[in-house]
């Protein structure tokens, strides 16, 4: 092969990729599913916070299915579902934090659901 070093480069990028962790706070790493208290200990107080509750519906289907028959024709890949659907409303506590690490770095948006980190997004440059 003429350029074997080109194969090594993508492998090295995997090890330094920022997607391996959600956020770096100084020397500490914060990852998705971390608890709010752990993030607070690692990153300190956020610049701003917002809290609210969301109602989400979760449903399941209890019943069965039958293959379709029409006259003496059998349609094996088609089914008719019957039964009851149960829908449950679930209340989720949502906390949104914004960290500003200075003008040389991006602001970071963190979204917690029921005390666990679920999302990290980069915002514009800090102040």
What's the gist of this structure?
The protein has helices at about 5-15, 35-45, and strands at about 25, 30, 50-70, 75-100, 105-115, 115-125. It has about 130 residues and is α+β, with helices and mostly antiparallel strands. The chain has one domain.
Give descriptors for this structure.
alpha+beta, 6 strands, single chain, 58% strand, 127 residues, four-stranded antiparallel β-sheet, flat, two-stranded antiparallel sheet, 2 helices
Largest sheet: 4 strands, antiparallel
Order of helices and strands: HEEHEEEE
- The overall pLDDT average reads 79
How many H/I helices?
2
Portion of residues within helices: 10-25%
Q: Span between N and C termini?
A: 49 Å
Task: Write the SSE topology.
Elements: H1 5-16, E1 23-25, E2 28-30, H2 36-43, E3 48-70, E4 73-99, E5 106-113, E6 116-125
Antiparallel strand pairs: 1-2, 3-4, 4-5, 5-6
What would your notes on this structure say?
The protein is of the alpha+beta class and 127 residues long. The protein has one domain (22-125). Helix content is 16%, strand content 58%. It contains two helices and six strands; from the N terminus they run H-E-E-H-E-E-E-E. It has helices at residues 5-16, 36-43, and strands at residues 23-25, 28-30, 48-70, 73-99, 106-113, 116-125. The strands form two sheets. It has a four-stranded antiparallel β-sheet, covered by helices on one side. It has a two-stranded antiparallel sheet with strand order 1-2. The chain is flat. The chain starts with a helix and ends with a strand.
């Amino acid at each position: 092969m003429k350029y074997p070093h080109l194969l090594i480069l993508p492998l090295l990028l995997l090890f330094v990729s920022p997607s391996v962790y959600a956020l770096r706070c100084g020397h500490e790493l914060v990852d998705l599913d971390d608890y709010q208290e752990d993030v607070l200990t690692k990153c300190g107080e956020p610049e701003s916070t917002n809290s609210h509750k969301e109602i989400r519906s979760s449903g399941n289907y209890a019943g069965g299915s039958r293959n379709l028959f029409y006259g003496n024709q059998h349609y094996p890949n088609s089914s008719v579902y019957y039964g009851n659907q149960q829908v449950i409303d679930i209340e989720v506590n949502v906390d949104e934090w914004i960290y500003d690490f200075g003008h040389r770095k991006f602001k970071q948006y963190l979204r917690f659901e029921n005390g666990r980190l679920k999302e990290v997004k980069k915002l514009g440059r800090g102040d």
